[in-house]
Amino acid sequence: MDQKESRMEQWKKEIRPIASEVKYSLYLIRLHPLALAGLTLVVGLMMVAILAPWLSPYDPLKVDLPNKLTAPNLSHLFGTDEMGRDIFSRVVAGSQISLRIAASVVAFAFTLGTTLGVIAGMYGGAVDEIIMRITDTFLSIPGLVLALVIAAALGPSLYNLMLSLCVTWWPWYTRLARGETLSVREKQYIESARMVGASDIRLIFRHILPNCLAPVIVNASMDMGFVILYAAGLSFIGLGAQPPSPEWGAMLSLGRGYMREAWWAATFPGLAILTTVLGFNLLGDGLRDILDPKLRR
Amino acid sequence: MIPVLLGVTVITFVISHLVPGDPARLLAGPHAPIEVVLAIRSKMGFDKPLYEQFYIYLSDLLHGDLGMSITTRRPVLTDLLRFFPATLELTLTAMVVSVAIGVPLGIASATKQNTLPDHLSRVVALIGVATPVFWSGLMVLLIFYYQLGIAPGPGRLDVGVTTPHQITGLYLVDSILTADWGAFTSALSHLVLPSIVLAFSTLGMIVRMVRSSMLEVLREDYIVLARAKGLPERAVIYKHALKNALTSTITLTGLIFGALLSGTVLVEAIFSWPGIGRYAVTAIEYIDFAAVMGYTLIVTLIYLTVNLSVDVFYALIDPRVRLE
Hints:
The structure holds 2 protein chains of 2 kinds. Chain A is mainly α. Chain A has 13 helices and no strands. In chain B, helix 7 (133-147) crosses helix 9 (181-218) and helix 10 (221-228) packs antiparallel against helix 11.
């Protein structure tokens, strides 16, 4: 019992500086109008995605032919599409799809990329050489094109789209994490930790990783937006989510066909993409300022 | 560059083996007898071991053989060469527009740091990055073409205008060279909307880069000196600061060119622009895989070449890099 308590105490002691840093960051966000705007948009979007079943007045897939292509009005805020489906409900449902894609792709790229980057930076030599050669090769193909060709090879589906974006995204994190590791590795506290006998694993997880995470987190926030943008673009050209799925890019692609009669069908999904990506970008841009130690104090 | 290129071919080779199903069956069609499928399989080398297939693949590439397109029934390379000038013209115009707007915005942002112009140009840049080009393209077409009728519709030229005599394939250049002013104005007006839409997406990168490198340069001693000796602020900014700030911005050119070049996939689809991007999208619709692979390889090759030239050019103009 005693030992458990002392562990708890120890943990509390260790967590205290981290907690105060987090608190201070939250305080800084409030002073940064753009970051705050971004945070508001992102939180708003998450709320929409979570509350989707209660927010949407209609079933996003329900066909209602007598009411097709109705202009926006009180019962259909964003109007209806060519099958009479309620566009507002579809945009709301689309937020779930987009967030799911972005979160999975960024989580995958973040985990794989950062791990490889830290390993490359930590061990150097042949390991570094091999990892970075592979990374550079992936980065030498423009991202959208690589995702496009993989998605095209695998065949159009939402799952394949996510897979292709994962393959495209991880190298950026490897490069970033490696650079950060290289600069952290030479610091004195790493040397001290090594001298008191810390294992490589402990060094990586307790000392190197936490200290090179800030720019990676900024990148991850921005990437949430870019993944959504890419996913919508690829769905727009027919890779990825297939109609009648309420994915925003796929909705735009459908709406394009009767844009002249019904401007709302393409306009609202596009606005949804724009605000979402803008939210993540503003947040990332603000986080860059806030997490920058040079500007921090 | 050679190892990277080799690596890229490994990636594309692997991707082309991801295609689900039997490629020979796909080529032969669903109703072809099994003998035909087997014949295709051995003819295309699908029955050989992988390393041998890779060797064949590589030697075909080196001979400029990107395979046949099943939609156009022409060699993919011929198709790509034919459609490429349209894409190049669009990309270059967008680049010019992006720099012409982005650099002044970046300067304004840096010289008026943390004031309204700075915040505004940052917000404009961020909105630009966040706007899906396939949506803004549709919106500008809807407004300026369908509603107001002041912009020309999709395509590279008005209906009835004859294509300028092909020299470079870039309509602007060709029409100037042949003094075909009707075609020139038509081509230029058709470029306006797509190039602005495309340029808007990379504006943010330029503004951010110019802003941060200007801010860095403005803190240098020689700027203090220039101000101390009484030079007007204009001269300090445009002659002393900008020149030094722009050299580091040049390193970004490759990245921006890559973003614009791949962005054409979506923009060309919207504006029915007859470039390699639209070619690739059509190929995807018809599962014309050789064409999609060819497109990927060409775009990557161009992207790598541009990046290499940027590095060389940067070394040429910046003595600090040359010395290392």
